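note to self — DONT lose this again. spent like an hour looking for the file last time. sequence + predicted structure for the chain T wanted, 180 res
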Amino acid sequence: MTPSQRTGKQVEPDASRPYMPDYGIVNAASGEGLLPWSWAIQRLENARNYWIATRRANGQPHLMPVWGVWLDETFYFSTGRHSRKARNLADDPRCVVSPERADEAVIVEGVAEAVSDPSLVARVADAYSKKYDWIIEPAPDGVRDAHGNEGPLFAVHPRVAFGFGGDLAGSATRWVFTER
């Protein structure tokens, strides 16, 4: 359960400038120019396609596009049970998710976990189905649902996120999630 689910309100992550030597990033000690978390949420909610990066057991990176939804400070996506993504996450749940647009980039580093709570699965499946006009009903292990889906639903809980608007030097923002 996320902090907002427990308290019923949005929890703002701590915002600061990322450490990016040689990029001319503006000092944000005053807080000026930092992007609000709502800016990132808008991009996470409205994107159609996302990139997810995982790590193979031998350390080799793996990057693939996915569909997903952002709900309650968490990114949810489904994939095939035997897909490279699912196998990588079984070995190492750390991953990175980013919406498709690089000109207004949002990068979320987090930890993925399989979702099994039926009420949460139903809520996410409903949001996913509305967004993509595609029925998704993640199925139990080894079972294919009536719509041909066979795979787990993952929740990626952010630990740190980065945002970059049109002015990289003046907008670069790092958000740290402390209440997880």
